[in-house]
Amino acid sequence: MASEEDLDKLLNHLPFFLKEHLIIHPQKQKLIEIVIDLGRRPEARFLTGPEYLSQKIISWQDLEFITKRITKFSNENRAGIERTLHRISCIRNRQFLITGLTCRVGRAIFGTISLARDLLESGKSILILGKPGVGKTTIIREIARVLSDEMEKRVIIVDTSNEIAGDSDVPHSGIGRARRMQVTQTDLQHQVMIEAVENHMPQVIIIDEIGTELEALAARTIAEKGVQLVGTTHGICLENLIKNPPLTDLIGGIQYVTLSDDEAKRRGTQKSILERKAYPAFQIAIEINEQNVWTIHEDVQNSIDHLLRGTSMITQVRTIGKNKNLSLTYKNLYTTSLFKSSFNPTSPNLSRTSWNSLNSETQLKKPILQSKNLVIYLYSLSYNLVREVFTKLGINLILTRDIKKATIIIGLKKSIQKNQKLKNLATQHNIIIYAVNRSSSYQIAKLFQFLVF
């Protein structure tokens, strides 16, 4: 990967004793940000870790020296340096005086999108998730350049904090031929998104940090107009969006549905379940696990449905190695339950639980089970319900869908008694069968407490 940066322009805005130290620093190219707080020693944060830059304590004069040489701070307490991607954020006291600065180094890095270039060519809308500082803005800046320069598409960037194209009326060259629309106030971002579509006929809209319900709704409106979207939002994985009500429109929205008794029994779930309301605004999702490790969901609709049902799904993991070679692997993940209940594992009602072993020749010996890992095969029990009990009790057990890999089978007594084939298979592989009378959190919790604790 190649990078283009104007680090010297940032250093020229710092007091001489900081500039002098950083210019000759051996890790200068790995600098992430500089932290300058009143009454403290200045600190630099590198990819390798933090480091103090001087023994000198920062004074009011040092802060004033910097603030007089940069652009004015916005309502979000952010400023920049003309024709660069650097961002300077301030901390104010109760009198609104600046007492701290965070100078973040902005870099236009070329080649970051090599992990997902084929996804851009598909023409589908792409949502990028990652925790703060993982490089989402750098990635969408490179996406803007590739789409506008190499694929010759009409690209509009909605730049709220001026991080994508820099804090200047003339956008940074890192975005290529893409056009940039600045947002005067953060709470007006959704209006600028709609304005971009209605006034400038783009083929692609790029948005950084979608964070409110209005912005999510605007994204859905744009998607329904046939415009390709590329956006970022904070979150580690898709499940974070499901649990974040303002942003659920990005992945189709979530609603509670009450099933009939027959349908709930057929699905093996509770009667009240979560389901997706509509088609997602984004068809592809990229989870940025690390800088060179991405998890790809090529069908967001399918992934969300699996997450809501608590069933397994296959995800694609793409990695760039040290030799710059791309490797692609597939992982079969068992998703966790997203249903909530009032179940309390310490409830005295647990003492009324009844369960028993259906093995005629094998007795359940607790010391033996404690000495090895339990791999559990569930029969006629909801995976969501059992995983919820795992979480409440803090138990780390393994569920399997391959009965031959199981060390124990747990199911409803009535269902197991009718299945002679299951009992014969358990006897053949020396697997213990345990049955509960009812599919309830209390009975399952009581059983697991006996097996593990």
TrEMBL record:
Has UniProt tagged this entry with the keyword Nucleotide-binding? yes
Query: Superkingdom of the source?
Result: Eukaryota
Name of one Pfam family that matches:
Spore_III_AA
Name of the coding gene: ycf45
Q: Which GO terms describe its molecular function?
A: ATP binding
Ranges for domain AAA+ ATPase come to: 122-278
Its taxonomic placement starts with:
Eukaryota, Sar, Stramenopiles, Ochrophyta, Bacillariophyta
Name of the featured protein: AAA+ ATPase domain-containing protein
Does the keyword Chloroplast feature in the UniProt annotation?
Answer: yes
Query: What organism does the UniProt record list as the source?
Result: Cerataulina bicornis
Annotated signal sequence is none
Q: Which UniProt keywords apply?
A: ATP-binding, Chloroplast, Nucleotide-binding, Plastid
